[in-house]
Each structure stands twice: as structure tokens, then as C-alpha cells.
Write a structure and sequence with these properties.
The complex is a heterodimer of chains A (about 110) and B (about 110). By secondary structure, chain A is an all-beta fold. Chain A is built from no helices and eleven strands. The chains are: A mainly beta (about 110), B mainly beta (about 110). The interface between A and B is medium-sized, with 25 and 25 residues.
Chain lengths: ~110, ~110
């Protein structure tokens, strides 16, 4: 059974700091991993999708990496801004190319001005 | 471009009353559709998913049911709500047949059962 863990559960940083969010998973036989952002009371916004053949994906100040062998993914946020404050979730299939996703519980990020 | 809609945005219902939440997707055909619930302090839980009209898979035994009467319409229902049905309900879609399964979420419905 795929289990997804995100540590830390909450993180508070000053504006401008570079930071790393972590995601670990137990079953590495996956085709992809997806990072989402959720603002309070809102739906999820897809940030990045990393295919199993890729090691990283970049979008603006965001960079996500995937290491299947160690069962880890990281989301790197450069030069953090108060607008980055949100909960960040990682999700991946329970196995292989399943249509379903299993989610971590998220990391709540607060960027202080 | 594709968009996903959910309504209502907020709902307060008494215990024992029926429920109907609707989700529609625009700009794509034959999507995979999903219903998730996010309860306070808990992660997202997949409730149902559908790969086509009339095809529903249930992930968790519960008081809820789902239907897909049209290609891009997904409905979540209950005949009698329980207090434990309170939560934030999210609908999502993904491209059918793709192994990479990038999912896109709607704005959600906040359900409070009193």
C-alpha cells in the first residue's frame, strides 16, 4: 500500500528565503508524482508533474525533483514571497500507472514579510 | 482550455437530509472524473472515480454514492446525511488513457452537516 509522508507539517520562513519541502513514499514503482498548492478554503492548483523518466521539473521559482530509488521528492522554492503562503501537497499513484492518486497530508508554508 | 466547475460552493444541511453536489468539466472529452473529501485535520481521501458514463468505482464504503449521467458531469449524492459527512468536497479530472494522470481540481464545496 502506497504511503506518502510530508515533513515538516508546517514551516514558517522570512520573505526572500530559499526553502525545500519534502515528500517521501513507500512504493517506488510509479509513473509520476504531482505537486499541488492549496490556499485556505480553496481547491488544489497543480504546480508540477514529474514523470518517472525525469529527475526534475521547473516552473518559475519552483523546482521539483524525484528520486525513485530513495522514495523521495523535493519541492524547492526560490526567493520565497508572502504570496507563496499556502499548503503544499504531493501526490502519486498507489501503484504503476493507476488513474488514482494518494496524497500526503501537506506542508503548511507561511512566508513572513 | 479546460475548466472545472462545482456547485454549490457552500452548503449547510441537517442530519438526515439528502445531498446532491455537481461537478462539470468543459473543454475536454471523455475525462476521468474523481470525487475527493478533505476532512478537518485529515488528508484528501478519494471517494469515487469514473472512467466513463455510468462507470463508477467506489474507494471507501460510506453513506455516499456517485453518478455520471453525462460525459462531463459527475454527481455526488446521499439519501441521508450523517454528521461525519461534513467536509470539503473536491472534484477533479484527468485525461483518459494517459499513464501520467495529471489531475486538475475544481474549487470545492464546503459541506456542513448540523
Amino acid at each position: 500500500k502506497q504511503e506518502v509522508t510530508q515533513i515538516p507539517a508546517a514551516l514558517s520562513v522570512p520573505e526572500g528565503e530559499n526553502l525545500v519541502l519534502n515528500c517521501s513514499f513507500t512504493d517506488s514503482a510509479i509513473y509520476n508524482l504531482q505537486w499541488f498548492r492549496q490556499d485556505p478554503g480553496k481547491g488544489l492548483t497543480s504546480l508540477l508533474l514529474i514523470q518517472s523518466s525525469q529527475r526534475e521539473q521547473t516552473s518559475g521559482r519552483l523546482n521539483a525533483s524525484l528520486d525513485k530509488s530513495s522514495g523521495r521528492s523535493t519541492l524547492y522554492i526560490a526567493a520565497s514571497q508572502p504570496g507563496d503562503s499556502a499548503t503544499y501537497l504531493c501526490a502519486l499513484p498507489p501503484q504503476g500507472g493507476s488513474e488514482k492518486l494518494v496524497f500526503g497530508k501537506g506542508t503548511k508554508l507561511t512566508v513572513n514579510p | 482550455s479546460q475548466t472545472i466547475h462545482q456547485w454549490p460552493a457552500t452548503l449547510v444541511q441537517p442530519v438526515g437530509s439528502p445531498l446532491s453536489l455537481e461537478c462539470t468539466v468543459e473543454g475536454t472529452s471523455n475525462p476521468n472524473l474523481y470525487w475527493y473529501r478533505q476532512a478537518a485535520g485529515r488528508g484528501l481521501q478519494l471517494l469515487f472515480y469514473s472512467v466513463g458514463i455510468g462507470q463508477i468505482s467506489s474507494e471507501v464504503p460510506q453513506n455516499l454514492s456517485a453518478s455520471r449521467p453525462q460525459d462531463r458531469q459527475f454527481i455526488l449524492s446521499s439519501k441521508k446525511l450523517l454528521l461525519s459527512d461534513s467536509g470539503f468536497y473536491l472534484c477533479a479530472w484527468s485525461m483518459a488513457g494517459g499513464i501520467y494522470n495529471e489531475q486538475f481540481f475544481g474549487p470545492g464545496t464546503r459541506l456542513t452537516v448540523l
